[in-house]
Design brief:
By secondary structure, this protein is mainly alpha-helical. 76% of the residues lie in helices and 0% in strands. The protein is elongated.
Length: 68
């Protein structure tokens, strides 16, 4: 993984969080609709999990390492 500027990482983190929130709303809407497309719902959920993992990686990289 390449070292990036913390400011760039913070901006990317904000973008991912917005996308995650949007996907959450889309999943809720699709899940409540009549005649929903299960395949599309599964794909959206998978994408949401990938975003969650990416968010966690960026958040952990923003935490400074402490030497014990």
């Amino acid at each position: 993984m390449q070292v990036q500027d913390p400011i760039q990482l913070s901006h990317r983190l904000a973008e991912l969080k917005v996308e995650h929130r949007d996907l959450d709303a889309a999943i809720d809407h699709l899940a409540q609709s009549i005649g929903r497309d299960e395949l599309q719902l599964t794909r959206l959920k998978k994408r949401k999990l990938l975003l969650k993992d990416a968010i966690a990686r960026i958040e952990s990289s923003l935490i400074p390492d402490l030497d014990a």
